Amino acid sequence: MIAFENVAYNYGGGELLSEVSLRLAPGSFHFLTGPSGAGKTTFLKLAYADLLPTSGHVTLFDREVRSLSRDEIAHTRRRIGVVHQDVQFLDHMPLAANVQLPLTVAGKGGDLADLKDLLTWVGLGHLADAVPPSLSGGERQRAALARAIIMDPDVIIADEPTGNVDWEMSLRLLTLLVELNRMGKTIVVATHDLNLIRQAKAQVPARVLRIARRRIQLAGADL
Ligand SMILES: Nc1ncnc2c1ncn2[C@@H]1O[C@H](COP(=O)(O)OP(=O)(O)OP(=O)(O)O)[C@@H](O)[C@H]1O
Predict the structure, then answer these.
(1) Which ipTM score applies to this complex?
(2) Are 52 and 4 in contact (CB under 8 A)?
(3) How many CA atoms lie within 13 A of 91 on its CB side?
(4) In this protein, which residues make up the domain named ABC transporter (predicted)?
(5) Closest CA to 142 of 196, 185, 83, 97
(6) Average pLDDT score over residue span 198-217
(7) Atom 3, ligand 1: residue with shortest CA distance
(8) Phi and psi dihedrals of 38, rounded to 5?
(9) Residues with beta carbon inside 6 Å of ligand 1?
(10) Helix (H, G, I), strand (E, B) or coil at 4
(11) pLDDT tens digit string along 46-101?
(12) What is the 101 CA–ligand 1 centroid distance (Å)?
């Protein structure tokens, strides 16, 4: 589904990631961990074609990213829902409209009942009319997840989704991600939180990718 073959990346300074080769199979659940600044966000951006590798090959849904036209990249991105580290909303628009935005941008109306169901599923059914500045950190993260999945993507990529929320809310977000994985979605979550990873591993066969010294490797079962 997502494959890296000997991928390297640098922003113009030294090489940040080197010799990254891995495959994320359909339906898999991966965590990505590593020290701050190690390149987790950069890896995720490569995985959703926001960045192109400096060398090597990234393949998304059996297509080499570099061979895709701009339209094809846009089409491919719709198959990947992203929860960004710094969640941004349009503050003047109600939550429901914000969550629906990817559909609106894609020129699709969307079913109001589906939107309501989605908001209820993430526990925000009662806040459909609220504006983003009035939401708590955990509510914003769940809204971001709802927006990431509204296009029914095959892959969900979340960058530190539990970074600013308490443990109870982290578990709630994890439960949603686990449920999505059980529905067949491929999940990739960058996190510093080893407790969250341990908790997930008790529920799904999640695997852990660890960035160290510019390389990304599958960690053993020692968490
Ligand atoms: N657009 C950019 N231009 C230049 N350098 C960048 C850019 N984006 C990130 N970097 C640098 O690349 C390195 C890796 O950044 P990245 O955000 O991928 O790390 P991270 O592991 O996600 O960090 P954190 O856990 O703190 O979010 C950092 O040193 C960062 O300053």
Answers:
(1) 0.96
(2) no
(3) 2
(4) 2-223
(5) 83
(6) 93
(7) 11
(8) -70, -25
(9) 11, 16, 34, 36-42
(10) strand
(11) 999 999 999 999 999 999 999 999 999 999 999 999 999 889 999 999 999 999 99
(12) 27
SS3 call for 59:
strand
Token look-up 């459909």 returns 128
Residue partners of 157: CB distance under 8 A and separation at least 6: 44, 47, 48, 80, 81, 82, 83, 188, 189
Task: Tell me which amino acid residue 53 is.
Answer: P
Burial of 203 (0-12, 13-18, 19+ CB in 10 A): middle
The CA distances from residue 62 to 2, 48, 76, 126, 148, in Å, are 8, 13, 11, 40, 22
pLDDT in tens, 164-185: 788 998 998 999 999 999 999 9
Residues 176, 67: Cα–Cα separation, whole Å: 34
Spatial CA neighbour of 90 closest among 103, 81, 99: 99
Protein residue with its CA nearest to atom 30 in ligand 1: 37
Which secondary structure element, helix H or strand E, spans residue 143, and what is its range? helix 137-149
Q: Provide φ and ψ at 122, rounded to 5°.
A: -85, 5
Atom 24 (ligand 1): residue with closest C-alpha?
36
